[in-house]
Design goal:
The protein has 321 residues and is of the alpha/beta class. It has nine helices and 14 strands. It has a six-stranded mixed sheet, sandwiched between helices. A three-stranded antiparallel sheet has the order 3-5-4. A three-stranded antiparallel sheet has the order 7-8-9. It binds ligand 48N. Belongs to the THI4 family.
């Protein structure tokens, strides 16, 4: 028999509102008609959580996950890569177009890519102006150093951006999920009878993707979308995925390859070059440096944010009103 339920004044306010916490010891909250008081710190002996059955937890998770997979199987836009560029793109689109259904596919369990630290494991993050405009819009505080600003911890930028993106009802993040291929449709042109347009992505759980060599029959899943925005970073174990795939499917002759570090030229180039590289595929962030052979910029992130702004603008040109 469950111990006598602790008396508790729990906030019955809808989720997401602030609990009325008076002080840490006595967690006082008020709940509708069942006004009860938990004196946490004093009543631990009689304290108990509401009852649960394991299957309820399992159903609460799986019902939502598979409903989302079903719902986003047809998306308006798929963003590949939830690094600083991909998330900035999603933030701009989520704000401007709440009518669009946007799926973000992120191979890592933890989204954020390379933006959790500022450089060489240092915590502060530098952004050159005018990227401070993006930080102002996001509500991220920074120290102004004249031509650049410094966010005291990169994780403050990335966690704020991530939380804003995840709060949009029309955006769904599928993390720990890798894009393994691109969906294509014939789109011959007068100069290239074999040209294709991109029409979605092929996905698998990342841990499955990593074991295709030692397991068989692990076929993928798919998401159809008229527009894919790829921001998978510069070449690396998972990086530059979409543009490398374009080369291997003969839709791009070869990659220009990211060049050496030159902060002064890299950031302008990457923002300016963010664009639709083949019909239905926009590339931004460090992935575009692999296409045109732009330099890398090292530990400064303004170009990632503004490449995301540019990618969102390019997307709205493609998608239209
Ligand atoms: O942070 P990244 O790697 O990429 P960007 O372009 O958003 O930001 C790049 C930035 O962090 C830098 O590299 C900085 C500015 N340094 C520059 C320099 O010169 O050193 O995020 C890419 C994301 C990651 O989270 C990957 O896990 C993910 O994309 N990803 C994928 N997700 C799904 N499917 C894939 N095939 C895939 N490949 C990568």
């Amino acid at each position: 028999m469950a111990p006598p339920a602790a008396t508790s004044e729990l906030s019955s306010a809808p989720t997401g509102t602030n609990l009325d916490v008076k002080n840490l010891g006595g967690l006082k909250m008020t709940e509708g008609s069942h006004a009860k008081t938990i004196e946490l710190g004093k009543d631990w002996e009689s304290f108990t959580f509401a009852p649960i059955r394991e299957s309820q937890v399992s159903r609460a998770m799986t019902r939502r996950y598979f409903a989302d997979l079903d719902d986003y199987a047809e998306s308006d836009i798929v963003i590949v890569g939830a690094g600083s560029c991909g998330l900035s793109t999603a933030y701009m689109l989520g704000k401007q177009r709440p009518d669009l259904k946007i799926a973000i596919i992120e191979a890592g369990v933890a989204p954020g890519g390379g933006a959790w630290l500022g450089g060489q494991l240092f915590s502060a993050m530098v952004m050159r102006k005018p990227a401070d405009v993006f930080l102002n819009d996001l509500g991220v505080p920074y120290e102004d150093e004249g031509d650049f600003v410094v966010v005291k911890h990169a994780a403050l930028f990335t966690s704020t951006l991530l939380s804003k993106v995840l709060s949009f009802p029309n955006i769904k993040l599928f993390n720990a999920t890798a894009v393994e291929d691109l969906i294509t449709r014939p789109a011959p042109t007068p100069t290239d009878p074999h040209a294709v347009r991109i029409a979605g992505v092929v996905t698998n759980w990342t841990l499955v993707s990593m074991h295709h060599d030692d397991q068989s029959c692990m076929d993928p899943n798919t998401i159809n979308a008229p527009l894919v925005i790829s921001a998978t970073g510069h070449d690396g174990p998972f990086g530059a995925f979409s543009v490398k795939r374009l080369v291997s499917m003969q839709q791009m002759e070869r990659l220009g390859g990211m060049r050496g570090l030159d902060m002064r030229t890299a950031e302008d180039a990457i923002v300016k070059q963010t664009r639709e590289v083949v019909k239905g595929l926009i590339v931004g962030g460090m992935e575009i440096s692999e296409v045109d052979g732009a330099n890398r910029m090292g530990p400064t992130f303004g170009a990632m944010a503004l490449s995301g702004v540019k990618a969102a603008e390019e997307a709205l040109k493609v998608i239209g009103e």
